[in-house]
């Protein structure tokens, strides 16, 4: 069916006249102006409208974070005038970060403003979608900006605590979930820590898909099994099987759907990517190379796959955008597997992992995807993490 006004595919129909009328979303308003009793029907899959009030609240919160960040850095600069010689290095770092954060706010505002205001119904929604359709409105309360702490003259004059934005609108941050041992899951929501014994193995992978939900995929030996875990009820239920059995893979969101990337099937390393769409796993464009033990992160409309193993530990970065993967020329500073990834402002922080000697590292890298540069951070992890999943 096509729209009677513009010949685009029709999204709605109405039987207000003797002949059924068809229209697209652009011309739906024109049809309502006709003096008839309208019964509008949606053509095709059910769609959810983004909640316009929540969208405005989200944009206003980002704008307020941006405004507060500007005020904070102004205070920091004023404070720095009396301490310039001692604090110039610390100020430069904070100033660069805040400028990057403000740019990130602008990026997020542009990104969210340009989103379609409706999405098709599906089984799992990424954090941004869950927020905008009011499935998980609490995500809005999780967003916080950077915090500038000003000190008197002493060993530390300025400290800039990093923000969890935009990480928290592209990855769920209600809980941190990791394997504390080979089969035991440790969950921390920032207030309480709980443990859950499972039949899973830490060579499989986990992805938070809701406030209290996580998907586990793979296993040992390599498996095509997938499960949904309810962290509050401590219940586990099966999902449909992946097309490819795997372990040592990565999980993240791709195009708003839970996804698995790469790994090892017990015989060969993989470049195969699958996404979980409303009850089934579908093949997606493959990585540019086979690898296991990689890490991946969703970042606006892009996905980055970092590090991994193919004959040796890797320092590569791949980018998914517009339906295809690209191997970037920029590299991380060390060959690593199993790194952690965190998006803060315009930076992706790459932390931890295992080096070529299979030793856990505390070093951190900073990746700026605007400038396509990676540099070693001047800070490190205080403690080695549990098994990074």
TrEMBL record:
<protein>
    <submittedName>
        <fullName>Uncharacterized protein</fullName>
    </submittedName>
</protein>
<dbReference type="InterPro" id="IPR015915">
    <property type="entry name" value="Kelch-typ_b-propeller"/>
</dbReference>
């Amino acid at each position: 069916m096509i729209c009677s006004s513009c010949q685009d595919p029709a999204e709605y129909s109405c039987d207000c006249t003797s002949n059924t009328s068809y229209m697209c979303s652009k011309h739906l308003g024109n049809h309502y102006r006709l003096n008839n009793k309208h019964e509008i029907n949606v053509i095709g899959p059910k769609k959810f409208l983004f909640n316009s009030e929540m969208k405005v609240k989200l944009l206003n919160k980002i704008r307020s974070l941006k405004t507060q960040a500007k005020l904070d850095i102004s205070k920091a600069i004023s404070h720095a005038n009396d301490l310039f010689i001692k604090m110039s290095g610390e100020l430069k770092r904070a100033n660069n970060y805040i400028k990057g954060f403000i740019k990130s706010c602008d990026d997020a505002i542009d990104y969210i403003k340009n989103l379609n205001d409706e999405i098709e119904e599906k089984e799992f929604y990424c954090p941004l979608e869950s927020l905008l359709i009011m499935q998980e409105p609490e995500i809005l309360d999780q967003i916080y900006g950077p915090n500038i702490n000003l000190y008197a003259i002493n060993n530390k004059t300025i400290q800039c605590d990093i923000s969890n934005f935009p990480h928290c609108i592209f990855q769920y941050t209600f809980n941190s979930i990791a394997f504390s041992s080979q089969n035991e899951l440790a969950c921390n929501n920032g207030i309480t820590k709980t443990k859950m014994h499972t039949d899973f193995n830490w060579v499989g992978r986990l992805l938070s898909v809701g406030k209290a939900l996580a998907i586990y995929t793979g296993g040992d030996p390599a498996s095509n099994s997938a499960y949904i875990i309810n962290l509050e009820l401590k219940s586990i239920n099966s999902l449909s099987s992946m097309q490819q059995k795997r372990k040592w893979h990565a999980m993240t969101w791709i195009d708003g759907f839970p996804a698995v990337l790469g790994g090892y099937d017990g015989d060969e390393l993989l470049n195969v990517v699958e996404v979980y769409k409303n009850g089934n796993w579908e093949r997606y464009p493959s990585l540019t190379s086979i690898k296991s033990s990689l890490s991946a992160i969703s970042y606006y409309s892009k996905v980055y796959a970092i590090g991994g193993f193919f004959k040796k530990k890797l320092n590569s970065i791949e980018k998914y955008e517009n339906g295809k993967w690209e191997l970037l020329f920029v590299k991380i500073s060390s060959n690593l597997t199993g790194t952690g990834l965190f998006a803060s402002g315009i930076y992706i922080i790459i932390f931890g992992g295992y080096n070529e000697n299979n030793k856990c590292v505390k070093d951190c890298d900073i990746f700026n995807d605007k400038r396509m540069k990676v540099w070693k951070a001047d800070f490190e992890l205080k403690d080695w993490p549990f098994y990074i999943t």
